[in-house]
Design a protein that fits this description.
alpha+beta; S16 Ribosomal Protein, Chain: A; 6 helices; elongated
Amino acid sequence: MALAIRLARGGAKKRPYYRIVVADSRAPRDGRFIEKLGTYNPLLAKDSPERVKLDAERISHWLSVGAQPSDRVLRFLDAAGIRERAARSNPNKGKPGEKATERAEQRATREAELAEAAAAEAAAPAPEAPAEEVAAEDTATAQPEPAEGADDVAPPTAGSPEAATAEGEGVSTEAPAEGEAEKAE
């Protein structure tokens, strides 16, 4: 019979609570166990003393009999100073998988192509606009030249009464002629 010191899950759905038990390694995870050795509540703060409770004396007894702790329980025992846990090294843990490396390579080639295209556009001289388009742009933005002899007279502004009469929209300040006065009445 192989003995294991492991976690047995309890608690409600999404509210885990674990008992640290010694059990036959062939028994179900949450099933029959030999002795309860402590508790683990992952919902409590990491620095809380209530998070992990261990019965150090009984754990030492079961370790001397040959019980093997699970990896998680061994971490608890190492933190409590009961049993030393050997440091592990997994150099491949941080490496991305095959699909991720393929996507990274595709992204790098795509970015390189875009950078080359941008460099080619920047290196190529800008095409000059034809003379006809330049002349059309100049005439569209040019101000109309004043009529001859009107150099000393300023053009009417938009808010002035002269501008309103020039456009025919405003009220005239002149008195109406005789024929127009009769029509108005």
